[in-house]
Amino acid sequence: TGVGRVLEPLVIYVRDEIAKPNIGEKRYKDFSGFLLTVFFYIWLLNLMGMTPLGFNVTGNIAITVCLALFTFFIVQFSGNKSYWVHIFWMPGVPIIMKIILMPVEVLGMLTKPFSLLIRLFANMTAGHFVVMSLIALTITLKAQFGVVASTGMSFVLAFFISMIELLVAFLQAYIFTMLSALFIGMAVADDHH
Questions:
Q1: In terms of residue numbers, what domain contains 28?
Q2: Res 147: pLDDT
Q3: 7 domain residue, yes or no
Q4: Could you give the number of structural domains in the chain?
Q5: Do the domain assignments include residue 193?
Q6: Would you say residue 163 lies in a domain?
Q7: Which of 5, 45, 76, 175 is the least buried, fewest Cβ under 10 Å from its Cβ?
């Protein structure tokens, strides 16, 4: 009932379309709480950041670093033997290639959370920057087109971009959650050798 009725389809969507396919039927329940928390945290903060009194929290690099570090530590501590073997001593690969690929795999392990934090930070910051820039057109165009025309034009542009930002608010929460589930799924996947 109430708000739960509105949020239940999103919870089911995160469970059925993000957690189960990326992590697997056996282990998705272990990580569903984290994925749901991250999804709703990012989505609600993005929505609150669009309000006049809101602050662009996910446009703050410290917040995105913390979220990415949570994902990183969950992946590293949940990784099974197969995950670590594939990072440090890939089965079926010649020894010379193993020595070359090991640092590449370690670098890849570190770039995954970096890509998570930069993607969220940059997209949210850029969106807010565009909205503020379009609103600033009111001041700069006032001299050429008059107050009414410049205000109307800036309002229409800012309103259009704000509607796109509603989509981006959801999309960024979805992408962060999806990539987190994918990274977790790669770490806990059963050995297929």
A1: 3-188
A2: 66
A3: yes
A4: 1
A5: no
A6: yes
A7: 5
Ranges of residues in the chain whose predicted pLDDT is under 70: 138, 143, 145-151, 191-193
Could you tell me the two tokens for 14?
A: 């995160």
Q: What predicted TM-score, i.e. pTM, was given to this entire model? A: 0.85
- Name every residue whose Cβ is closer than 8 Å to that of residue 38 and which is 6 or more positions away in sequence: 67, 70, 71, 173, 176, 177, 180
Q: Give the model confidence (pLDDT) of 17-66 as tens digits.
A: 999 999 988 889 999 999 999 999 999 998 888 887 778 888 889 999 99
**Residue 157 pLDDT:** 75
pLDDT for the residue 149: 66
Q: Nearest to residue 138, comparing CAs of 129, 151, 128? A: 151
Cβ neighbours of 59 (radius 10 Å): 21
Q: Does residue 128 lie in a domain region?
A: yes
3-state SS track over the chain: CCHHHHHHHHHHHHHHHHHHHHHCCCCHHHHHHHHHHHHHHHHHHHHHHCCCCCCCHHHCHHHHHHHHHHHHHHHHHHCCHHHHHHHHCCCCCCHHHHHHHHHHHHHHHHHHHHHHHHHHHHHHHHHHHHHHHHHHHHHHHHHHHCHHHHHHHHHHHHHHHHHHHHHHHHHHHHHHHHHHHHHHHHHHCCCCC
